[in-house]
Write a structure and sequence with these properties.
alpha/beta; Adenylosuccinate Synthetase, Chain A, domain 3; Adenylosuccinate Synthetase, subunit A, domain 2; 2 domains; 6-stranded mixed sheet; about 30% helix; globular; binds 6-O-phosphoryl inosine monophosphate; binds magnesium ion
């Protein structure tokens, strides 16, 4: 029995969905613990591909329940579309449950998100956060401000009406809001359709854990987008860390067994904010093309750069990673050399190795120092097939050295390597025994 939390170790889009889907084969519950329609988790199956936004990827497997958990802000209208799309593609195999405590993300929040971005951009050229404009910030702000509406409220028209009155009273600054009565009617209707899925989900998880079943907490966004520990203010409005996953599910800390950090072998970021290891030019365009680095939610081209060990060491400590999954190693195949940022030098000449400056502008001003690794071959179909059949033994030696270095530098064993988008393009390297500090005791293939 294990409770595992899957955490994004960079700026999002690390293939958390793909890794969670891989682990979900042995799970009873998969729980999305935060965020909402800002997430885009792409899953490629033999039967077809899908991007999950608000559903946990457990819903793609028979016998697994995907919970959209209490820490989320759920847009019920988009959720219905997502469910319809899954049904249309015959990919809905598991069960869907929605937490009654999750907040409802309303069309009002989307309008407010766009308004906030305009206000920021008008006030300062660098003011925009570059949000996904799905309403996340305003929905979480209303949650914290106690103006929010929760999934449970949808079944209680009188209470819903009072809450909507309050909410509308707080939105005098916004234009073009839908009339309250119209929104109320739509919410009651959608609430009625979703009612069979809306539950108290924490007791189910407590019971599953007591019965020795596997539970996976599927992180959305990433630790570096955490509202407190990320690159504030260029962050999302939730807590995409291991601690946040507990708050967002109602599972207590002592039940948590594994914290799996997911990182690409390089790095990407979408939206505004500092990105010390960003690369442009031909190399950048190559990575964008080869890695299909376009936002699954917004269609925006992602900025790309090299793996940043300063940030990864920080995030490993912050979340207590017990293991790492390194994804998209195939995208770097064919490079003569692969640079990795091992430290920063600040404009004052100070060296930083494992803790970034708190002020985003200061992080933007650091100079990364790179160590270069010999590259590994291009990932053709033959190499992929050998990896699928022979496992870790087929890993190119230069790639092993790169992975060993990442493990050593973060003090976290690399347990999974992903080398393609398909479900079977993930390699399990074995447990990095004996402990989380075992950089030297790398997976099976090292000794
Ligand atoms: P997944 O789960 C990548 C980024 C946005 C923006 C900032 C704030 O697919 O990894 P928000 O709409 O959340 O207020 O935007 O956070 N962002 C993501 N970037 N993947 C995501 O989710 C993201 N969710 C939010 O681009 O910079
Ligand atoms: Mg994304």
């Amino acid at each position: 029995m294990t409770v595992t939390v899957v955490v994004g170790a960079q700026f999002g889009d690390e293939a958390k969905g793909k890794i969670t889907d891989y682990l979900a084969a042995d799970a009873r519950y998969v729980v999305r613990t935060g965020g909402g329609p800002n997430a885009g988790h792409s899953i490629h199956l033999a039967e077809g591909s899908v991007v999950l936004h608000q559903l946990a990827c457990g819903v793609l497997r028979h016998g697994v329940t995907g919970v959209s958990g209490p820490g989320m802000v759920i847009d019920p209208f988009r959720l219905e579309e997502e469910i319809r799309e899954l049904e249309g593609k015959h990919l809905l195999k598991g069960t869907i449950l929605l937490s009654e405590r999750a907040h409802v993300l309303l069309p009002i929040h989307q309008i407010e998100d766009a308004w906030e971005e305009e206000v920021r951009s008008a006030a300062s050229p660098k003011g925009g956060v570059g949000t996904t404009r799905t309403g996340i910030g305003p929905a979480y702000a209303d949650r914290a401000g106690r103006w929010g509406i929760r999934m449970a409220d949808l079944a209680r028209p009188a209470i819903l009406s009072e809450r909507l009155d309050l909410l509308y009273a707080s939105k005098g600054h916004l234009k073009g809001l839908p009339p309250k009565d119209e929104l109320q009617t739509r919410l009651v209707e959608v609430g009625g359709r979703l009612a069979p899925m809306i539950r108290a989900t924490e007791p189910l998880l407590w019971e599953a854990i007591a019965n020795g079943e596997n539970v996976i907490l599927e992180g959305a966004q990433s630790a570096l987008l955490d509202v407190d520990f990320g690159t504030y203010p260029y962050v999302t409005s939730s807590h995409p860390t291991s601690a946040g996953a507990l708050m967002g599910s109602g599972i207590p800390p002592q039940e948590l067994d594994e914290v799996l950090g997911v990182t690409k072998a390089y790095c990407t970021r979408v939206g505004a904010g500092p990105f010390p290891t960003e690369v442009g030019g031909e190399v950048g365009e190559y990575l964008q093309r080869e890695g299909h680095e376009r936002g699954a939610t917004t269609g925006r081209l992602r900025q790309v750069g090299w793996l940043d060990l300063v940030l990864l060491r920080y995030v490993a400590k912050l979340n207590g990673f017990t293991s790492l999954a390194v994804t998209k190693v195939d995208v770097l195949g064919g490079f003569d050399e692969v640079p990795v940022a091992v430290q920063y030098v600040t404009p004052h000449g100070d060296t930083l190795t494992d803790y970034p400056p708190a002020i985003a502008e200061d992080l933007a001003g650091v100079q990364p120092v790179y160590q270069k690794f010999p590259g590994w071959p291009k990932f053709n179909e033959r190499l992929k097939e050998r990896l699928r059949t022979d496992g870790a033994h087929a890993l190119p030696s230069t790639l092993r050295r790169f992975l060993a270095f990442v493990a050593q530098e973060t003090q976290v064993p690399v347990e999974y390597v992903s080398f393609g988008a398909d479900r079977d393009d993930t390699l399990w390297l074995g447990r990095g025994a004996p402990a989380r500090s075992a950089g030297a005791d790398l997976p099976a293939w090292s000794g």
